[in-house]
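Before a computer can learn anything about folding, someone has to put a protein's shape into writing. The outcome of that step, for a single protein, is printed below:
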Amino acid sequence: MILPKERDPRLVTVRRGGTLTDDDHHLLALWAAACAEHVLGLFEAARPQDPRPRQALEAVRAWTRGEVGMSVSRAAGGHAMGAARDLRGAARHAAYAAGQAAVVAHVAEHDLGAAAYAIKAVRAAAPAGEAEAAGRLECRWQRDLLPAAVRDLVLEDQRRRNAICWSVFEPLPGWGAQP
């Protein structure tokens, strides 16, 4: 489970009683899609004929442009996660990353799901003994990609939810002991 028991109102849309603006929600969705797309080849190498994870990324990007409704993106995310069910390892994690990215349209907090599954995919694809280093590099790459408007929010959320996201987000300066 990657969603917290207590929701952070900064990651809940204004329409649902939180403070997340549509613009920032779209930035989170686009960042999540970029994280997932970065590892999508790991799925496509295993299942080149299955378009569902790529379609999920296309759907969430279309949602950010106002071309499709939230339910279309959410459904595409479910189909991408369905593509993962009978797989293992990097391909499975990559498909889940795409699915999580697409459902950001519904619940913004799935952004970390996309990022965490992408890190898990990179770790699973790494040569023996290199998984941790590969995961750290992926995490840094993702952070470098964060839009300035949501950067602090995402970094704080990574710290807050690291334990329920398989502890894939490397400690930030000042974290101290891991939760």
